[in-house]
Amino acid sequence: MNREFRVKLASRFGSHRIDIMSDQTPIERRLAALEREVSELKQRLNNGNAQVNWIERITGSMADFPEFEDVIRFGREIREADRPAVD
């Protein structure tokens, strides 16, 4: 892998350390390195999921706005007007 490609790859991933192994590196070492990277990525994803769900975060956020009840009512009226008439 040439130096120019490594620099572009490194700049694309910002400050993250990128350890690019050559084709001459034994497959076992390359596989172990990939497994470590996948494990780290999974851990990052799992830590992100531990945060509160977005809907839980916004539930009740409009409780102090009496106008919000009007918004809910208007939305309901629009949905009901769009329903087909029952014969």
Note down, in words, how this protein is organized.
- The longest helix is centred in the middle third of the chain and has 23 residues, at 27-49.
- By secondary structure, the chain is mostly helical.
- It is built from four helices and no strands.
- The protein has one domain.
Give a quick rundown of the structure.
The chain has four helices and no strands. By secondary structure, it is mainly α.
Task: Flag low-confidence runs.
Answer: none
Integer average pLDDT: 78
How many strands? Answer: 0
Q: What general form does the structure show?
A: elongated
Radius of gyration: 26 Å
User: DSSP strand (E) fraction?
Assistant: under 5%
Sketch the major β-sheet: none
Features:
elongated, single chain, mainly alpha, 87 residues
Q: What order do the helices and strands come in, and which of them pair?
A:
Blueprint: H1 3-12, H2 27-49, H3 54-58, H4 67-82
